[in-house]
């Protein structure tokens, strides 16, 4: 449209404002959808890490129990049970690290759609400026 803002009537300006607001709302909804899709993917990845970490930690517990059982069964052979305990501790530590990573990724602060919230704040300020 070639018409300057100063020469348009109030109803035209109001119509333009409504149309642009509608477009803005649609674009914000699209942004929110895209960002929520990204957050769902992040949550899925975090849940996968938690599941894998849980399985690995469980395997570590099993190996530790096996080491204890071997230590009791073969009390005289210290090398066998010590090796089993060492392997169990290593597997357990790996599992705990993965559990911690998954828990961190599920932190509520990591799931907030920050870009959408920031964009909505800017849009609110813009609309305030335009309606003055």
UniProtKB/TrEMBL annotation:
Keywords from the named record: Membrane, Transmembrane, Transmembrane helix
Bilayer-spanning residue ranges: 46-72, 78-99
InterPro entries given in the database record: Phage_holin_3_6
Pfam families cross-referenced by the UniProt entry: Phage_holin_3_6
Protein name stated in the entry: Phage holin family protein
């Amino acid at each position: 449209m070639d018409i300057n803002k100063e020469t348009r009537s109030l109803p035209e300006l109001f119509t333009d404002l409504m149309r642009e607001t509608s477009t803005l709302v649609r674009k914000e909804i699209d942004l929110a959808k895209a960002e929520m899709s990204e957050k769902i993917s992040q949550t899925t990845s975090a849940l996968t890490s938690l599941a894998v970490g849980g399985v690995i930690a469980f395997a570590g517990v099993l190996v530790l129990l096996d080491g204890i059982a071997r230590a009791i069964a073969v009390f005289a052979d210290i090398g066998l049970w010590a090796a089993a305990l060492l392997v169990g501790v290593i597997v357990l530590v790996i599992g705990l690290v993965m559990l911690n990573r998954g828990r961190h990724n599920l932190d509520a602060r990591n799931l907030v759609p920050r870009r959408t919230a920031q964009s909505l704040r800017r849009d609110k300020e813009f609309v305030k400026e335009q309606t003055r």
